[in-house]
Design a protein that fits this description.
Blueprint: H1 2-27, E1 37-43, E2 47-50, H2 55-59, E3 64-68, E4 72-79, E5 86-88, E6 95-99, E7 112-118, E8 124-127, E9 132-134, E10 140-142, E11 147-148, E12 163-165, E13 170-173, E14 179-182, E15 185-188, E16 194-198, E17 201-204, E18 211-212, E19 221-225, E20 227-229, H3 235-273
Antiparallel strand pairs: 1-4, 2-3, 5-20, 6-19, 7-8, 7-11, 7-15, 9-10, 12-13, 13-14, 15-18, 16-17
Length: 274
């Protein structure tokens, strides 16, 4: 009976964490470039049940009864890097990154392309959110004030908002028609090593070097100025999953309450009769 309490409790905790993940997805349904998280559920190792001291089973040469599940847990939440739809904003500082042909890594998974930015601590972060702006010094930054980096890993100074961006990421001054820089597009061959750190940014925790897609003949991409990439959250599907998680939580809750009532009777009623 106590084992059943733990099993039902594990199910409740799992569904609560899944609900929190789905809530995060819904909250970012309108965040440009946001990648929805998906949950990986795992069962705790099953316990092998054997009968002890049962003459009938022992006479037939076996005491094996079966296996008992000991609960479930949410092992991890991983981003779904599927590209979202793009929409037009008519803002010259908005850039949508359209991924074309990208080679697969050693694990067979296709690599992903990202913008590279520098956070307030001088660390490199990656994002698909192209909702950029130009600060007072003429640097291209994110909405949070993080600097967008060029192909050399330096802060990209575009001078003003009067610039155009070619499909391959080259920035051209709209007044002088002279190139002023190259927006870097990073190629991450193992996206599973990326960790969300807030504000649409990702940190790379892998061992390999992050390559640039600029000048890489095996990679095709396109930057579209005046457009943004939508979040890839499917709102209708997410609401359905939230309802399912709630129902599963309530089912485990009812099981837990049933065990609680049984224990109460065991302690109070049976104990009093004895």
């Amino acid at each position: 009976m106590i084992r059943g309490l733990y099993t039902a409790g594990a199910g409740m905790i799992t569904q609560q964490r899944r609900q929190e993940m789905l809530t995060d997805n819904m909250a970012n349904a309108n965040t440009p470039g946001y990648k929805a998280d998906q949950a990986s559920m795992r069962a705790f190792p099953n316990q092998l049940i054997r009968a002890m001291g049962t003459d009938h089973l022992q006479r037939h040469g076996t005491t094996h009864v079966g296996e008992l599940s000991t609960g479930v847990y949410m092992q991890e939440r991983t981003p779904n890097f599927r590209q979202g739809d793009i929409y037009e904003t008519f803002n010259t500082t908005d850039l949508a990154l359209l991924q074309g042909v990208v080679p697969a890594g050693d694990n067979g998974q296709e690599g992903m392309l990202f913008y590279t930015v520098e956070n307030g601590d001088g660390e490199v972060r990656y994002t698909r959110n192209g909702n950029f702006t130009v600060d007072g010094a003429g640097f291209l930054t994110t909405a949070q004030g993080n600097y967008v980096l060029d192909a050399a890993g330096e802060r990209l100074n575009v001078g003003s908002e009067n610039f155009t961006v070619t499909a391959d990421g080259q920035v051209v001054n709209a007044l002088t028609e002279q190139p002023v820089g190259q927006i870097n597009v990073a190629l991450v061959m193992d996206p599973d090593q990326l960790v969300k750190v807030g504000n649409g940014f990702l940190r790379y925790d892998g061992d390999g070097e992050i390559q640039t897609a600029i000048g890489n003949g095996g990679v095709t991409f396109q930057l579209q100025q005046g457009f943004l990439e939508r979040s890839n959250v499917d709102a209708a599907q997410t609401v359905t999953q939230m309802m399912t998680a709630l129902r599963n939580f309530e089912a485990n809750q009812r099981v837990l309450q049933a065990y609680d009532r049984s224990l109460e009777r065991t302690v109070n009623d049976i104990g009093r009769i004895g």
